[in-house]
Design brief:
By secondary structure, the protein is of the alpha/beta class. Helix content is 34%, strand content 17%. The structure holds pyridoxal-5'-phosphate (PLP). Pyridoxal-5'-phosphate binds next to helix 3.
């Protein structure tokens, strides 16, 4: 498993022990003689899994006993682009546009009412995060994307607003200490830092929903999912169990504060190399660089070919940039080891001798 250095942006790398635990559960879950793939989502075994994962999902962010509910639904973050306005938009919502995912969320919200772009970094190809954002009063909610997976930029602070704040935290949830309490609805596609694809995690304050007049189809309705405890229909049992293993692993590492130290170390190593080597160009403005997704390219195109070959020889994989940006992207999610980043840095440095 660990012979490759996998920098995949998503579905992301998970710790070896999570793969191991998930594999064992497929063959014989908790010595029940049954596969995790073939137990009922209403069995007492699965209810225990669900309760523990809901507890960990909140407690790791310091959100337990603060009015939040944790939902484990299907459809990924893209489904939440739709569920958010369905459940929260009366007439007018504010969105901050910091990249492709924000733009997609905006497109969906427009189906439900008036969308105001409160701030945008589109003018400089999403290389930065807008500063000193002033949010008008009277919005139904404010939506932002804490980490821009494709461009490699990241918010340092939670934008301040007098309305509920909603955040797509898909690609930096559980990676750093953040003021999550200032956010009323946090959502994430699980496959970036939580577990396998096919799951969306929604951590929401119950008092922000139930205020719109429209008819909400049951699958789209947060109230329905809360009332049914994420079991309105068949839950994604395997993805939820694997996510539990990963969140347990994170807790054993010392939680979010401890993993943040490691994540910062990894990101600093790589950014330092990018800044020192004059044949490499970082994409994002230095102030707003993401600690999770590091985007860069070579100043000369031919170097890319040399780099591709060297990566292959060094077992480095999934490092190509997103198709809309090009270049390269190293995603440094929680399970990516310092050793993998070290290997990548060495390859980048060795290229000096190949020019
Ligand atoms: C990957 C990603 C998404 C899309 O997630 P899906 O689960 O594929 O729908 C949305 N937002 C951000 C920030 C992402 O990184």
């Amino acid at each position: 498993m660990s012979t490759m250095h996998n920098f995949c942006a998503g579905p992301c790398l998970l710790p070896d022990e999570v793969y191991q635990g998930a594999a064992e559960a497929v063959l014989n879950f908790n010595n029940t003689g049954l596969s995790i793939l073939s137990i009922s989502h209403r069995s007492k075994e699965f209810i225990a899994i669900l309760e523990e994962v809901q507890h960990l999902a909140l407690s790791l962010l310091g959100l337990e006993h603060k009015g939040y509910t944790a939902l484990f639904l299907q459809g990924g973050a893209s489904m939440e682009f739709l569920r958010i306005p369905y459940n929260l938009m009366k007439s007018r919502a504010g969105y901050i546009n910091t990249g492709n995912w924000s733009s997609k969320a905006i497109e969906q919200a427009k189906l439900f009412g008036q969308v105001e772009i409160i701030a945008s970094s589109e003018d400089r190809n999403y290389t930065y995060i807008p500063d000193s954002i002033i949010v008008p009063t009277g919005l139904d909610y404010l939506h932002f994307t804490s980490n821009n997976t494709i461009y490699g930029t990241q918010f340092h602070e939670v934008p301040q607003a007098d309305c509920p704040v909603v955040c797509d935290m898909s690609s930096d949830i559980y990676s750093r200490v953040y003021n999550c309490e200032q956010i009323d609805v946090i959502y994430a596609g699980a496959q970036k830092n939580i577990g396998p694809a096919g799951l969306s995690v929604v951590l929401l304050k119950k008092d922000v929903i139930g205020k719109v007049n429209r008819i909400i189809p049951q699958m789209m309705n947060y109230t329905e999912h809360i009332d049914k405890g994420s079991l309105y229909h068949t839950a994604n049992v395997f993805a939820i169990y694997t996510s539990l293993l990963n969140l347990r692993w994170l807790e054993q590492q010392g939680g979010v504060a401890a993993i943040e130290v490691v994540n910062n170390k990894k990101a600093n190593m790589l950014y330092q190399a990018i800044d020192e080597l004059d044949y490499i160009q970082g994409f994002a403005d230095k102030t707003y660089r993401s600690q999770m997704n590091v985007t860069f390219d070579f100043k000369e195109k031919e170097m890319g070919h040399i780099f591709d070959q060297m990566c292959q020889d060094a077992n480095i994989t999934n490092i190509k940039g997103h198709r809309i940006l090009g270049g390269y992207r190293a995603s440094l999610y929680n399970a990516v080891s310092i050793n993998s980043v070290q290997t990548l840095v060495e390859v980048l440095q060795t290229m000096k001798t190949k020019i």
